């Protein structure tokens, strides 16, 4: 397993140069285009890593899965889906377009920025710090890593340049979907800056693959919520590349602009990938190809 992973990482590293590191969040520019690493955590208890797997990255949009889980655990499906939909958009992750043309301010799904901002506004807690701590606690129990924290630099960098997200949030406020814009954004920018490694992502993927049971065997997320978020990962997890990804790879996965991908093969394994060079859709260019290769090799497609 390790040798196969290593071989496909070496093969796909060359593809990474076709992509570009996200630059709209200045701190993310520091990542290297050549970085590519992955960890696989299986239901049998094996943890296998290859390439630049110890690279630390921020979760970015992978955190949208965490907040969706927490909001569902806190408030239940009815309340959550009264403020965010269940349909893919086919638009870029930070698009404002559908919010306006549909004349309905309810964002189409929780995996795009508008939807994730609406979900973050539902996280229960006394303060932003308290809510962030609850999100990080969920990451800690799902990954089995008690040391999870967030990057102040990346958070501040995004907060300083996050005008598109500010625009989305003010639009949501205008239509009564959220209240305190700056507070919600403050939480959203911080959750995006939670720092993880491939192993953390693989273990989170494994936890979802085991229907909410983490690597230590503890049920930390209700099974029906684990199933629900994996379904969102299939339909919306790779933004406007979700359809092609489902066909070529066929694994529930969620990407982030840091080049992170968290993938979950039901009952079998979780996979964490780091590859900061992104394609036009904002997904790790080499990471997607790597997953395509290993999905074929190990017959991982769920379809
Ligand atoms: N923090 C990023 C943003 O809001 C997350 C987007 C992403 O990872 N695609 O723009």
Automatic annotation (TrEMBL):
The keyword Metal-binding does not apply. InterPro entries: Beta-lactam/transpept-like, Glutaminase. Its EC number is 3.5.1.2. Substrate binds at residues 61, 113, 158, 165, 188, 239, 257. GO terms for biological process: glutamate biosynthetic process; L-glutamine catabolic process. GO terms for molecular function: glutaminase activity. Coiled coil: none annotated. It catalyses: L-glutamine + H2O = L-glutamate + NH4(+). Keywords: Acetylation, Hydrolase. It is an enzyme of class 3 (hydrolase). The keyword Acetylation applies. Pfam families: Glutaminase. Belongs to the glutaminase family. Homotetramer. NCBIfam families: Gln_ase (TIGR03814). This is Glutaminase.
């Amino acid at each position: 397993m390790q040798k196969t992973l290593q071989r496909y990482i070496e093969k796909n590293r060359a593809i990474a140069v076709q992509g570009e590191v996200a630059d709209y969040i200045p701190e993310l520019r520091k990542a290297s285009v050549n970085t590519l690493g992955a960890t696989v955590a299986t239901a049998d208890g094996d943890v296998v890593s290859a390439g630049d797997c110890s690279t630390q990255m921020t979760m970015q949009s992978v955190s949208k899965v965490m907040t969706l889980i927490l909001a569902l655990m806190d408030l239940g499906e009815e309340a959550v889906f009264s403020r965010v939909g269940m349909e893919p958009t086919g638009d870029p992750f930070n698009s404002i377009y559908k919010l306006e043309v549909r004349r309905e301010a309810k964002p189409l799904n929780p995996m795009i920025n508008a939807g994730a901002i609406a979900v973050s506004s539902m996280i229960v807690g006394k303060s932003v710090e308290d809510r962030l701590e609850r999100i990080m606690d969920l990451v800690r129990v799902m990954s089995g890593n008690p040391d999870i924290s967030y990057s102040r630099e990346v958070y501040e960098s995004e907060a300083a340049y996050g005008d598109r997200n500010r625009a989305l949030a003010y639009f949501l406020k205008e239509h009564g979907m959220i209240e305190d814009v700056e507070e919600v954004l403050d939480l959203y920018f911080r959750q995006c800056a939670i720092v993880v490694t491939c192993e953390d992502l693989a273990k989170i993927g494994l936890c979802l693959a085991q229907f909410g049971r983490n690597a230590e065997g503890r049920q930390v997320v209700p099974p029906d919520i684990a199933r629900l978020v994996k379904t969102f990962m299939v339909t919306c997890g790779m933004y406007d590349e979700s359809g092609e990804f489902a066909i070529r790879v066929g694994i529930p996965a969620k990407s982030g602009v840091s080049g992170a991908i968290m993938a979950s093969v039901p009952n079998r394994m979780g996979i964490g990938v780091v590859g900061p060079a992104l394609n036009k859709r904002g997904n790790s260019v080499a990471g997607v190809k790597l997953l395509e290769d290993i999905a074929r090799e190990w017959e991982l497609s769920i379809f």
